[in-house]
Design a protein that fits this description.
It is a single chain. Helix content is about 35%, strand content about 20%. It is α/β, with parallel strands linked by helices and about 280 residues long. The chain has two domains: about 240 residues, 3-Layer(aba) Sandwich (Rossmann fold); about 35 residues, no CATH class.
Length: about 280
């Protein structure tokens, strides 16, 4: 992430209360947050923390009850900005079945660009690039119902990429995937980030944020913590309080650092820890 990167999305003291909420409790309460160009931001929290509600504000699916959400300088409160906001910020949800509308893979990926009214040649170019990035180019002529769960989620990502939005928001995209599917999708996200895409990744899995630039923790509709990934992973007691469990590899990385005093790698990989410990032999 560039240190002088401009702001892509900004929440300014945003409070949101769902109209159907009988209790009147705010799903978000006084949230202020910036998403900077080119960063991979992890948005963390347990169920009911408000992270999905926040995500839906970033492309005007929800409008703040109080406060403002600004996307590339455009207020989401202005109905005239909605099309431009959604063209700038693409969403991928946890259940790909809710996003797949085409009967064939390449037709589904083309749905967004077609609704943008783009020329056929531009649509074809975008679809090909998006399917290649998502690892689905070889299956472009396959019926969507024949895809596995992981492939359907990758198709949802391809549909978002075909919109050519500079910012991609993924709301619990690995929730319905097996370990292999999660690994494949995270590899795609890393490649997109390396290519300059701004990514907001909503999750409750700490193992998914190891390559992120920054992390934000939500609890009870408020931001409880914001900062780098490494210092977050070291906050064992706070993580438990927020309903977040460190995976075994992260716990081992943290304990080894405390016991040995070694400067272990920022990203807690098994290979990196072995390399750091070798001089002790």
């Amino acid at each position: 992430m560039k240190t002088d990167a401009r702001t892509v999305c900004e929440l300014r003291d945003v409070t949101y209360v769902y109209p159907s909420g009988a209790s009147g409790r705010a799903a978000l309460s006084g949230v202020s947050l910036e998403v900077r160009e080119g960063e991979w931001l992890a948005l963390l929290g347990s169920n009911g923390s408000g992270k999905s509600t926040l995500a839906r504000h970033l492309n005007a699916l929800l409008i703040p009850t109080q406060g403002d959400c600004i996307v590339y300088g455009m207020s989401t409160r202005d109905p005239a900005n909605v099309f431009a906001v959604r063209s700038a910020v693409s969403m991928v949800f946890q259940n790909p079945e809710n996003q797949i509308v085409g009967t064939v893979v390449d037709e589904d990926a083309a749905f967004g660009p077609e609704n943008q009214g783009l020329p056929p040649a531009e649509i074809e170019s975008r679809v090909e690039r998006a399917l290649e990035a998502a690892g689905l180019l070889a299956k472009r002529a396959k019926p969507t119902y024949t895809l596995s769960g992981g492939e359907k989620q990758r198709l949802a990502v391809a549909g978002a990429l075909a919109m050519d939005a500079p910012c991609l928001v993924l709301d619990e995209p690995t929730a319905m995937l097996d370990p292999r599917g999660r690994a494949d999708l995270l590899a795609i996200m890393r490649a997109l980030h390396d290519g300059g895409k701004t990514i907001v990744h909503i999750t409750h899995r700490l193992e998914e944020i190891l390559w992120c630039d920054r992390a934000v923790v939500l609890a009870g509709g408020r931001i409880e913590w914001e900062g780098g990934v490494e210092p977050l992973l070291r906050q064992d007691g706070a993580l438990r309080k927020w309903g977040l469990d460190a995976p075994p590899l992260v716990a081992l990385w943290r304990e080894l650092g405390e016991e040995t005093g070694l400067a272990l790698p920022r990203i807690p990989t098994l290979e990196g820890m072995i390399d750091a410990l070798c001089p002790l032999q």
